[in-house]
């Protein structure tokens, strides 16, 4: 049985497809407020759920003002602050599902890629009639992208679009209160007064009570599994890393759209920062689509070097590691 290769895929995405694709990923298509399970030991989770349900009501049925109550009061903006794997994305997707359209849902990277593909003015034009813009994983580590997103959110908020964003507090900063919230509001200072911050605390559910990440497979076993798994792909790590550098990141979702399981041979630590950031986006798209991962070579928790994990993109790399290990466990379970 022949095996497909991601490096052979030619992903093409039109501007209309980019806009239409701003919906929660398959992993969160069924997410609803009713399916969110707040941990009894984490009261902030129940508080965030209650507040977001109320926020959905304000977006859906805005209050009226003026002499004849014809002008709708903007619903405002909410920021979900918390660590990895505490259910912020579930809550954000639930909000999106609870609000009538038009509406948009995407990661920070997907929105910056959208602006890169369409241009700023066209992006504002296409999104300014929406009721809600949901931004998952708002990132503060690139000043240029942060400024771009601040401008975009400001323009859309001025047009009456409700905003909701999530970001992460680093695991070793959770005891320091609103570390991420303070950073978020400082970086978007022109918009910060419009945002209400909701704290979501708790441990990373992706790793709570789970065994250690699966060990890499022998090369022959990886090949055999790829050949016996319908819809699987098999690529060498170095070749796939090189291929990612040739593609716009907005196409990574299309790249893995028809993949049922990804097999990666001869994994090594990622050699440079640019490649590492591309792998973060690819891992996010695989995680969105719940695509199992199997690999040989170095363990997947060694993808990002210790130097990278100490650097400015630490949050991205820790999130990506958390997600790829969850997908590796999916791959091992399927085996």
From TrEMBL:
Pfam families: AFG1_ATPase. One of its GO terms (cellular component) is cytoplasm. The lineage of its organism: Bacteria, Bacillati, Actinomycetota, Actinomycetes, Nakamurellales. The keyword Mitochondrion does not apply. InterPro entries: ATPase_AFG1-like, P-loop_NTPase. It comes from the Bacteria. It comes from Nakamurella alba. The keyword Manganese does not apply. GO terms for molecular function: ATP binding; ATP hydrolysis activity. One of its GO terms (biological process) is cell division. This is Cell division protein ZapE. Keywords: ATP-binding, Cell cycle, Cell division, Nucleotide-binding.
């Amino acid at each position: 049985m022949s095996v497909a290769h991601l490096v052979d895929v030619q992903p093409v995405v039109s501007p209309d497809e980019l806009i239409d694709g701003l919906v929660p990923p398959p992993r969160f298509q069924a997410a609803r407020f009713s399916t969110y399970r707040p941990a009894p030991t984490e009261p902030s989770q129940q508080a965030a759920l209650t507040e977001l349900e109320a926020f959905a009501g304000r977006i859906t049925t805005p209050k009226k003002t003026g002499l004849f109550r014809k002008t709708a009061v903007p619903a405002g903006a909410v920021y979900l602050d918390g660590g990895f794997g505490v259910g912020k994305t579930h809550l954000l997707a639930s909000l999106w599902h609870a609000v009538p359209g038009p509406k948009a849902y995407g990661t920070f990277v997907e929105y910056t890629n959208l602006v890169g593909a369409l241009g700023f003015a066209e992006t504002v034009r296409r999104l300014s009639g929406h009721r809600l813009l949901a931004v998952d994983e708002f990132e503060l580590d690139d000043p240029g992208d942060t400024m771009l997103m601040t401008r975009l959110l400001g323009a859309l908020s001025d047009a009456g679009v409700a905003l909701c964003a999530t970001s992460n507090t680093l695991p070793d900063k959770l005891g320091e209160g609103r570390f991420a919230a303070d950073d978020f509001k400082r970086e978007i200072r022109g918009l910060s007064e419009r945002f209400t911050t909701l704290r979501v605390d708790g441990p990373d559910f992706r790793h709570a009570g789970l065994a250690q990440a699966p060990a890499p497979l022998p090369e022959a076993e990886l090949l055999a599994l790829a050949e016996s798994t319908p819809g699987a792909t098999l690529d060498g790590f170095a070749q796939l890393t090189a291929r990612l550098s040739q593609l716009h990141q907005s196409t990574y979702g299309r790249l893995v759209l028809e993949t049922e399981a990804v097999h990666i041979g001869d994994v090594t630590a990622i050699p440079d920062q640019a490649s590492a950031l591309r792998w973060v986006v690819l891992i996010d798209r695989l995680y969105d689509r719940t695509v199992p991962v199997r690999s040989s070579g170095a363990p997947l928790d060694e993808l990002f070097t210790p130097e990278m994990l100490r650097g400015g993109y630490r949050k991205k790399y820790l999130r990506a590691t958390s997600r790829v290990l969850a997908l590796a466990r999916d791959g091992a379970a399927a085996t």
